[in-house]
Design a protein that fits this description.
The protein is 42% helix and 21% strand. By secondary structure, the protein is of the alpha/beta class. The strands form two sheets. The chain has a seven-stranded mixed beta sheet with strand order 3-2-1-6-7-9-8, with helices on both faces. Strand 8 and strand 9 form a beta hairpin. Helix 9 packs parallel to helix 10. The longest helix has 16 residues. The chain is globular, with a radius of gyration of 17 Å.
């Protein structure tokens, strides 16, 4: 299943071998989350060819994809990684989904999820990954202050340069929320950098799909490559 992704990694000195891929997928399987193996394998495939720059994820949850990004950033010597999530029910609540899904969101113990994120990421985060526990809009204001030092207890402190090599958007899936995340963050992606827009294929609503399609139309030839892996839309900037 992973062979197509393995063969796309052309940077010989940075390429992951099959044992590394299997080990990382096994580690991620122990962390609660919706990122499936196909999406994670695609991220592993593109990571060796990223330009230098920050790796930013909007929506951390329990940290499954964040663990992948931190491990890869250390292995490939890219990064640093920044995770943005308020870990609050109010921010996570989506208007476009069924009442059943909304009840599940309200029932989640978001403080427990935040503590679980810290527990899951601590083995790989120190010196490589930081986080901002705030909304995407507030985090963007913080991020765009220029080269900034961000303190992330218990992970330590990291300085971010403001240019993004890989952006993973997986926050609130209401169309307005996804569109805002795209408007705020995509403009900071470096040439030949990547956007991963999660849940482009999603049974609970079409916010990510409508936003992704609108972005592809707006980018035109500026989108050098686009494809879907798992449920996520991948776009490489020209």
């Amino acid at each position: 299943m992973l062979a197509p992704f393995i063969h796309t990694q052309s940077c010989a000195g940075r390429r992951l071998d099959q044992l590394e891929i299997a080990a990382l997928l096994r580690s991620c399987a122990g962390i609660t989350g919706q990122s499936d193996e196909t999406k994670l394998a695609a991220i592993m495939a593109i990571f060796p060819e990223l330009p230098s720059g920050d790796v930013v994820e909007v929506g951390g949850f329990w940290g499954r994809s964040a663990f992948t990004l931190a491990w890869l950033a250390a292995r490939i010597e890219n990064g640093p990684v920044l995770i943005i999530d308020p870990w609050q029910a109010e921010a996570a609540l989506q208007n476009s989904v069924s009442e059943l899904v909304r009840r599940d969101t309200r029932a989640q113990d978001w403080e427990l999820i935040y503590q679980g994120f810290l527990l899951n990421l601590l083995p790989v985060a120190r010196g490589r990954l930081g986080f901002l526990r705030m909304t995407s809009s507030d985090a963007h204001r913080r991020y765009t202050q220029g080269p900034s030092l961000i303190e992330s207890p218990p992970f330590g402190s990291l300085t971010y340069g403001g240019d993004i090599a890989l952006l993973h958007i997986d926050g609130n899936h209401d169309e307005a929320a996804v569109a805002l995340d795209v408007a705020l963050w995509v403009k900071h992606i470096r040439p030949r950098g990547w956007l991963v827009l999660d849940d482009y294929v999603w049974p609970h609503g079409n916010g990510p799909a409508r936003t992704g399609d609108a972005l592809l139309r707006a980018l035109g030839d500026e989108a050098a490559i686009s494809f879907v892996a798992g449920k996520a839309l991948f776009i490489r900037m020209a």
